[in-house]
Amino acid sequence: MVDMCPHTCGLCDLTGVPRCKDNNKICPDLKDSCNDANPITKAATRQLCPETCGDCSGTGATTDPVPRTADCKDVATNCDTQKDLCENTFYKALMKTDCQLSCGWCIPTNYVCKDMNSDDCAKWDADGFCNNTAYSRKMRLDQCGKYCKMCT
Questions:
Q1: Scanning 55, 60, 112, 117, which has its CA 20 to 30 A from the CA of 33?
Q2: Where's the ShKT domain (predicted)?
Q3: Helix crossing, 118-125 with 137-144: angle to 10°?
């Protein structure tokens, strides 16, 4: 629900952009888990504690640029209807292999890196848009890929 309705869940400021802040007061105690070897622990901690984990850049730089590959494509046929699982901790590994294009895990070599509206990108990223996992990688790539340095 939080991924689909961040505003309704009270995660947005007055501009409608989700705030990039820790979601639990114990986040400072979890700092070591931000880069945990266990990918599930790491993903859960980074989602719960983006500020503590250093994912609130506000500078237009993403911590996770998207690679260009000649074979960037979806393997599964239902990727368009399953996009809400792209960032899901339990399905992320499967989505990376089966729906890499739809999820924004790669971009084709002919992809034109651009922003839909660079003025919006700067405003949104003041609240950490480029690294905010409340938005999917694909949405961040499509809306502000160039500004967020997700592509070149």
A1: 60
A2: 20-56, 72-106
A3: 130
Q: Report whether pLDDT(15) > 50.
A: no
Q: What is the pTM of this model?
A: 0.58
Does residue 37 have a pLDDT over 50? yes
Contact 39, 96 (CB under 8 A): no
Q: Tokens 């888990």, residue? A: 33
- The alpha helices in the chain, defined as continuous H runs, are 39-48, 92-98, 100-103, 118-125, 137-144
- Look up residue 107 and give its DSSP letter: B
Where is 137: in which H helix or E strand? Answer: helix 137-144
Residues 6+ apart with CB under 8 A from 98: 74, 75, 76, 79
Torsion-angle region of residue 67: left (phi > 0), alpha (psi -120 to 50) or beta?
Answer: beta
Rounded to whole angstroms, the Cα distance separating 49 from 101 reads 27
Residue 46 CA to residue 100 CA, distance in Å, equals: 21
In the chain, what percentage of residues exceed pLDDT 70?
Answer: 81
3-class DSSP state for residue 94?
A: helix
Q: What is residue 11's predicted lDDT score, i.e. its pLDDT?
A: 45
Query: Quick check: 110 pLDDT over 50?
Result: yes
Q: Can you tell me the distance from the alpha carbon of 83 to that of 115, in angstroms, rounded to the nearest whole number? A: 21
